[in-house]
Amino acid sequence: MSFLKRMKEKLMGSSKTEKEELLDQTTEEQEVVEHSTNEVEEITVDSTKKIEPETVEQEKEIEEDNQQKEEKNKRGFSAFSITEKFKSGLAKTRDSFTSKVNDLVARYRHVDEEFFEELEDLLLQADVGMETVMELTEKLRFEVQRKNIKDTEGIQALISEKLVEIYEQGEEDITELNIQEGDLTVILFVGVNGVGKTTTIGKLAHRFKKQGKNVLLAAGDTFRAGAIDQLQVWGDRVGVEVIKQSEGSDPAAVMYDAIRAAKNRKADILICDTAGRLQNKVNLMNELEKIHRVISREIPSAPHEVLLALDATTGQNALQQAQIFKEATNVTGIVLTKLDGTAKGGIVLAIRNKLHIPVKFVGLGEQMDDLQPFDSERYVYGLFADALDEQIAKTEE
Ligand SMILES: Nc1nc2c(ncn2[C@@H]2O[C@H](COP(=O)(O)OP(=O)(O)OP(=O)(O)O)[C@@H](O)[C@H]2O)c(=O)[nH]1
Ligand SMILES: [Mg+2]
Questions:
Q1: Can you give the pTM of this predicted structure?
Q2: Alpha-carbon gap, residue 24 to 81, rounded angstroms
Q3: Around ion ligand 2, which residues have CB less than 5 A away?
Q4: Interval between CA 342 and ligand 1 midpoint (Å)
Q5: Which listed site, 67, 82, 88, 178, has its alpha carbon 20 to 30 Å from 264?
Q6: 286 CB contacts (<8 Å, ≥6 apart)?
Q7: What percent of the chain clears pLDDT 70, i.e. is strictly above it?
Q8: What does the pLDDT look like over 369-394, one tens digit per residue?
């Protein structure tokens, strides 16, 4: 099936995975409002709530709005659907990168060498990375020749399809977490200061809880003042227990306690926070090794996932961090945070190509539901949404 057809299915909510994932989503979206006093309050927004109209025009507007909502519900496509989240989370990248691509397509009516060269420049500016750019344009040149494509109209669909191919590299299910069904799964988070580890742990705990799992958190960042409290705030917000010791204690000892507690409480998932200080590589290796050792002494197959949090807004710097952590510990996946905060969302592709570690989740905002499993098709759709919408509409049923 072509990329456009698959995307159309995802947008219409008729594909199996979309439906399965929608079951995961609550129909009511929860919004978290953080007050300046640091108190946290949950507000439930009920999308079905009726607003009383004051004028005839208003009544008409509301009716149209309700019709649209109904239409979307019939298609199993809520306003907060996953695809929409990717689309809005990638708005900054789309605004800068994609509008330039659209501009390029408008300026060059015909696909020629100069068009490819300018396209390469644009991709490099979006942090896609040299290797990926070269691989992409090579594939494009080949397809253009094979299909005898002459003009640039609609080339965004071809670019999208090839980007997905490059990302997937023939592998399937690369974003799946290694979950031990019916047994305890231990997930360890690593990453430098401020990349979003603790926030992501909170969002992930929320996600698991919605799936009915029994979740426990381990406050392994005993180094930074306030880190334990910050995790506790998330624990309270999500409604999960946090296993902690006092500031300055040995993180490995916290892990030991947490695993014992998780076993006693028959928890399904234990998520462990760690300190973000990036000292020299030897210290980092020693500390992570110790944590690792304590965890696997209690459960030989654990940790089942070591997730490295990287901040998308740091660009190429994120790649260097990943390299260091990759050497220090067995990173099984990447969580790319703050993708909504950068215009250089192409970094996802560079990470995949350079590090060969799959991006398992992306952070698309600061709300609890803004952590999404990475989906290369939705990501690429998010990059080119407007141009693709037109072409998707043209594809036959
Ligand atoms: N816009 C946006 N902000 C995010 C996202 N993820 C995290 N943040 C913000 O990034 C900031 C740092 O997040 P933390 O979770 O404290 O980072 P950390 O890695 O635990 O930091 P340390 O504990 O200092 O190592 C917070 O203000 C978060 O709200 C995201 O996906 N999008
Ligand atoms: Mg933290």
A1: 0.81
A2: 11
A3: 197-198
A4: 14
A5: 178
A6: none
A7: 81
A8: 899 999 888 898 888 887 788 777 77
